[in-house]
Design a protein that fits this description.
With 129 residues, the protein is α+β, with helices and mostly antiparallel strands. It has one domain: Kinase associated protein B domain (SH3 type barrels, Roll), CATH 2.30.30. It has 2 helices and 5 strands; from the N terminus they run E-E-E-E-E-H-H. The radius of gyration is 16 Å and the shape is globular. The relative contact order is 0.20.
């Protein structure tokens, strides 16, 4: 395999479901890295992962971002070395949520409407005073 092997302690980007995160590798398994989240680069999309952008599904899932310091098993091919400054978790969470919300603003579909409602609920939950 010509792929760069990563090590415990490396700072990486990791794609988990439809979210993208910055974190540290805390464990290495055969086909996965365990990554501890430090920041959110892309907030997960809402709805059913198996039926993207569909609303006529049994359950339209609310998809939360992984929490600060939460650990997740990420397939090795979805993890890359990260060399930039690590953003603050709360700031990155807010920015990623706003970016996703804004990407749906001009979309008049049922999917966009449902997604925006769920993102509003998540925003209220994430940033309670």
């Amino acid at each position: 395999m010509n792929r760069l092997e990563l090590n415990i302690g490396d700072c990486v980007t990791a794609i988990y479901k439809t979210g993208k995160y910055v974190g540290d590798i805390t464990n290495i398994r055969d086909h996965h890295y365990v990554v501890r989240v430090k920041a959110v680069l892309t907030h997960p999309q809402q709805g059913d992962l198996h039926n993207p952008k569909q609303t006529d599904v049994p359950l339209f899932h609310e998809r939360r971002a992984l929490a600060f310091r939460e650990q997740a098993n990420i397939p090795k091919q979805m993890v890359k070395l990260y060399t930039e400054a690590v953003p603050d978790y709360q700031t990155s969470l807010k920015e990623s949520l706003e970016t996703l919300y804004n990407s749906l603003k001009d979309d008049g579909s049922d999917y966009a409407a449902k997604s925006k409602q769920q993102l509003e609920n998540l925003k209220a939950d994430y940033f309670r005073s």
